[in-house]
Specification:
The structure holds two protein chains of two kinds.
Chain A lengths: L1 E5 L2 H8 L4 E5 L4 H4 L5 H14 L7 E5 L7 H5 L10 E4 L3 H10 L5 E3 L1 E11 L2 E6 L15 H4 L27 H11 L4 H4 L22
Parallel strand pairs in A: 2-3, 2-4, 4-5
Antiparallel strand pairs in A: 1-6, 6-7
Chain B lengths: L1 H17 L5 E5 L3 H12 L3 E5 L17 H14 L3 E4 L2 E7 L5 E7 L2 E7 L1 E5 L2 E4 L12 E3 H8 L8 H5 L2 E5 L8 H17 L3 E6 L9 H11 L2 E13 L5 E7 L4 E7 L1 E4 L2 E4 L33 E4 L8 H20 L9 E3 L9 H5 L5 E8 L4 E8 L9 H5 L5 E3 L11 H9 L6 E6 L3 H10 L8 E6 L7 H9 L5 E5 L10 H18 L7 E5 L5 H16 L1
Parallel strand pairs in B: 1-2, 1-7, 2-3, 7-17, 9-15, 10-11, 10-15, 11-12, 22-23, 22-24, 24-25
Antiparallel strand pairs in B: 4-5, 5-6, 8-16, 12-13, 13-14, 18-21, 19-20
Helix pairs in contact in B: 2-3, 2-8, 4-6, 6-7, 12-15
Classes of the chains: A alpha/beta, B alpha/beta.
Chain lengths: 218, 562
């Protein structure tokens, strides 16, 4: 899922402080799950805005949390609110912000989150990056552990040589060396011959930006 | 009239849940404590499955604590054989325990077979190993030995003493090497010193940092050892193992009473074993203490309860327990499981509900719940006409702490009391109470189990505190959501205070720690808004600390007003 993080309040306030009627728009999917933009976070941000703007008598904060911000139909339902708001503060991921901006053409849409990565929760409240969405998946050859994302240097042909004791990364001793993890896993699966195969330099243009996928009807 | 109502309520409470409960108990054995528990529960009329890791019932600790263990064990084995309520399964072990009190679904591995079995309660008894301290690795064949080895060499009469011991003139013991309060080792050590004095002619010295003689018969043993001429040396800090040119080993330590460093060379040095927990995989999800033994360090769990209602810990798995304490555990576990399964255990939890339509299946609540009371359950949405799995709270395991409610990012969990007219801890209620705050008020979120009682006590003993203080009762400060804090600040209050239980004494295990983290995060957010961190406070006080409560709130008021 997409993992995001809330921006510091100062930054949000600087964007939005000269608007009076603000819609704080959450999203009920990925960012709810990563505790960044669900109904609760929307409530907290709205409350913060109310406290910060307590001198502004005209300040009206409204809250809404559609199921998914990145769906045109779901945002279209909110279109009738457009006359009553001056700005939208989107608590969705980057895709959500842009979807909303595409529909609410007459008012500005600001992001309240920094969309950080694709990841999974390792423990309660701890998310780690797992996928870079590079568009050319290597996981078949690396025992299901992505070196593009989880190796600090994104190396495709084994570790860099700087691996620390205990299988930690040279760049950040708190992180595991992805290639140690890959080796251990392949060893367990008795697929170590994959380590010896040479991987061509990666085609980073597998997905041309912006990426578009057209799936045929199934 | 009132009494009748109370009675009916009570009977509702007691009959409601026990009807669905499975009336049998799973006990893991491999110790005297497990066997004893099984027999006790059998006496109360419940069916028991006794699970044994090894091929036959045995006790891992017979060598270390033999207080007639062999005889006890044999008599227990005979009793178990005759008992019709007890069914012994061996060799088998628990892999995982799913479900909630009264309806545990236990995954059991027997031989190469893995199967699920339903049990009403589970008693984990006796599961730890002993390990000789690492120092032995460096001193092989030098006369250093463990208590177990000494015990084997010594036998129990003058004729069985091995020549190795007979040759020795001086024997030194160190009791407390295996960490604190090792009552078992102290007891067996004292026993061996007495035996040595009686059956051989050697000098016996005992090095101790602190001697605990509160177990049954220990005081007597200690006196006997003193009378027989065992010399006790109390040292502080660490001792060192030394050796001289002749190759004999010795021990160097600082004697507290003489206030001098002493060295003692001896023929045999006996060092106590270390008990280590025998937990390979955690399928129980019940938490550990700091040393890795079962049962969290929390006063509300003592003596035998675990995080999960219906799972009990007895004896050695809780650490280094002596026989006296184990016996108390055995009775407690038997009584607890009987109360649970026969409906005498009045459980007042289960008032927290998930609004299934709003659940985003983020699993936050499942990870957060300290009692493992939340699982995914199928839910068919009438609007969407499709079945999906959403979080569901099992009332028989829930203790109404509200941790899930405070954490749910989709606001799908809230309190919904079954019979109270006031929906006291619901979001709506708390927010209403916050709305009623005036500009100068200091809202204090009080844990119902500690700070609220302290506040009540303060009123009882006529302690004055400012009428500006507005107390908001919550089941646990882990219930206080960030939004509650910010809504309070919206009312332009000078500050907000959270008051909960002291650390390791939270009725709901982690509520106070969670609240502490939340306050830390909220302070960061407030800082960004220009609100000083001194305006959000958190204190940890016990239910009887009325004076401290009053002091803390007046300090808080002072801090906020300046």
């Amino acid at each position: 899922m997409i993992v995001a993080e809330r921006k510091p309040f100062e930054e949000i306030w600087n964007m939005i402080s000269h608007y009076n009627r603000i819609l704080v728009l959450g999203c009920g999917t990925c960012v709810t799950i990563c505790w960044a933009g669900g109904e609760k976070e929307v409530g907290i941000l709205a409350s913060q805005l109310k406290i910060a703007g307590e001198k502004n008598n005209e300040l009206i904060i409204t809250e809404s949390v559609p199921e998914r911000q990145c769906e045109i139909e779901m945002i279209q339902e909110l279109k009738d609110k457009e006359g009553n708001i001056d700005a939208i503060l989107s608590m969705g991921c980057g895709a959500g912000v842009q979807t909303v901006a595409g529909i609410f053409t007459d008012i500005p849409v600001f992001p309240a989150l920094n969309t950080t990565f694709l990841g999974m929760p390792e423990a309660e409240g701890l998310w780690v990056e797992m996928c870079s969405a590079c568009g050319d998946c290597y996981l078949a050859y690396t025992g299901g552990i992505c070196p593009v994302t989880r190796c600090g240097k994104g190396l495709l042909n084994g570790p860099c040589g700087g691996t620390r004791k205990g299988g930690k990364c040279e760049i950040d001793p708190e992180k595991d060396c992805a290639w140690v993890l890959i080796y251990r896993r392949l060893e367990k699966l008795s697929m170590l011959d994959l380590m010896e195969q040479y991987r061509e330099p990666k085609n980073y243009r597998a997905v041309k930006r912006p990426g578009i996928i057209r799936a045929t009807a199934r | 009239m009132k009494k009748t109502r109370e009675k009916t309520e009570l009977s509702e409470l007691t009959t409601g849940e026990k009807d669905n409960f499975v009336k049998n108990v799973l006990v893991t054995a491999s110790s005297v404590s497990g066997m004893k528990t099984a027999l006790e529960i059998s006496r109360l009329g419940l069916k028991i499955t006794l699970l044994e890791k090894e091929t036959e019932l045995q006790d891992n600790h017979a060598d270390i604590v033999d207080q007639g263990t062999v005889e006890i064990r044999n008599s227990l084995l005979q009793k178990i054989e005759k008992d019709k309520n007890i069914n012994v399964v061996s060799p088998a072990s628990i892999i995982k325990i799913e479900g909630t009190a009264g309806n545990f679904s236990v995954k059991i591995k027997k031989d190469n077979d893995v199967f699920f079995q339903k049990y009403g309660a589970v008693v984990i008894a006796g599961q730890n190993l002993t390990e000789t301290v690492p120092v032995f690795l460096n001193f092989h064949n030098t006369g250093i030995m463990s208590q177990q080895k000494l015990g084997r060499l010594l036998g129990d009469s003058p004729h069985t003493v091995s020549p190795v011991i007979r040759k020795a003139k001086t024997i030194a013991f160190v009791f407390n090497d295996s960490g604190e309060n090792s009552r078992k080792l102290t007891m067996s050590g004292l026993k061996y010193t007495c035996l040595l004095k009686k059956n051989t002619n050697c000098e016996v010295y005992v090095f101790i940092s602190h001697l605990i003689v509160d177990s049954g018969g220990m005081e007597k043993l200690y006196r006997e050892a003193r009378v027989l001429g065992v010399i006790f040396i109390k040292y502080n800090e660490n001792y060192k193992i030394i050796s001289n040119k002749n190759g004999s080993i010795g021990i160097a330590a600082k004697d507290i009473f003489l206030d001098a460093d002493i060295e003692l060379f001896c023929d045999i040095l006996v060092i106590g074993e270390k008990f280590i927990p025998c937990i390979q995989e955690d399928g129980l999800k019940t938490g550990y203490d700091t040393e890795g033994f079962y049962q969290d360090a929390n006063v509300y769990l003592y003596p035998v309860s675990s995080r999960r209602r219906g799972i009990y810990f007895v004896g050695e798995c809780r650490g280094d327990q002596d026989m006296m304490r184990t016996n108390v555990d055995v009775l407690n576990a038997a009584l607890n499981s009987y109360e649970l399964l026969s409906g005498f255990d009045i459980h007042s939890g289960g008032n927290v509900k998930v609004e299934s339509e709003k659940c985003k299946v983020c699993l936050t609540c499942i990870r957060v719940c300290p009692h493992q009371a939340i699982r995914l359950v199928p839910f068919s949405d009438p609007a969407q006409q499709e079945a999906k799995n959403v979080a569901g709270i099992f009332p028989e395991a829930c203790y109404d702490c509200g941790a899930c409610s405070a954490m749910c990012p989709a606001k799908a969990i809230d309190f919904e009391f079954k019979r109270a007219p006031l929906n006291e801890y619901s979001d709506e209620q708390i927010l209403k109470e916050i709305e009623c705050l005036k500009q100068d008020d200091l809202p204090v979120f009080c844990c119902a189990e500690s700070a609220f009682l302290a506040a009540e006590r303060a009123v009882e003993i006529n302690l004055y505190y400012s009428p500006r203080v507005k107390i908001i009762r919550v089941p646990c400060i882990g219930r206080v959501d960030l939004i509650h804090l910010f809504k309070a600040f919206e009312q332009k209050v000078p500050g907000v205070l959270l008051a909960g239980c002291p650390e390791q004494a939270c009725t709901h295990l982690e509520g106070n720690i969670r609240a502490k983290d939340r306050v830390k995060y909220a302070r960061e957010l407030l800082k960004g808004m220009g609100i000083g961190e001194e305006r959000l406070g958190i204190v940890f006080i016990g239910p009887d600390m009325a004076h401290r409560f009053v002091r803390e709130i007046s300090e808080m008021l002072e801090r906020c007003s300046t």
